[in-house]
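Hi R.,

Here's the chain you asked about this morning:
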Amino acid sequence: MTLSWIPNAVTILRILAAPLVGWLVWSFLTHKSFEFREVYAGLAFGIFTLAALTDWLDGFLARALNASSELGAKLDLWADKILVFTVLIGMLTTYPIIAIYGLVCLSIRDIFVMRLRAKRPDVNLKATFLAKSKTAIIMGAMSICMLAYAFAMRAAQLEDTEQLELMITISRIGLSIFVFGCVLSLGTGIQYFLAAAKPMQDGHPD
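And here is the predicted structure, written out as tokens:
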């Protein structure tokens, strides 16, 4: 019995986890109870982090089982986007500026790269190391914020002002890393553009 279906199944699990994570993010940001906020934030952190780690796991399994495919590559690409975008949508009501900033930056970049790939099928525009790095940075920043928020809610319940201030600082660091990741994402768009433009400069018109 072939096991080539396992990598794609892992990727699909990441996609299925996205709506739950988005709901948990919205819940821990809007619930009135500090206790429930702590629980929701902790669950969001755990499920999101596990889902993010499957981004590495499905690739590892695809190579180990010799099950790499074009479908798997596309599923993997969209799974990352769906997971990140769902978290940002969950943030909209509480942190609209950060959420809209992320949605706009990432959407512009993704639409631009998709158009490049459609117009230049003759050029290798597969995900670069920098593009994969920006995804890891953005997901890592989101995990930091979720975990810091969970501990902040615990500190709020215990009225531990010192720990609360520390967790707020850590969450701000996480948000700063997220902003950097979005800027880096736009930079990868430029990287793809230069890769697509090079054949044209070498005498192969579009």
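One quick note: Residues 201-206 have pLDDT under 50 and may be disordered.

Cheers,
M.
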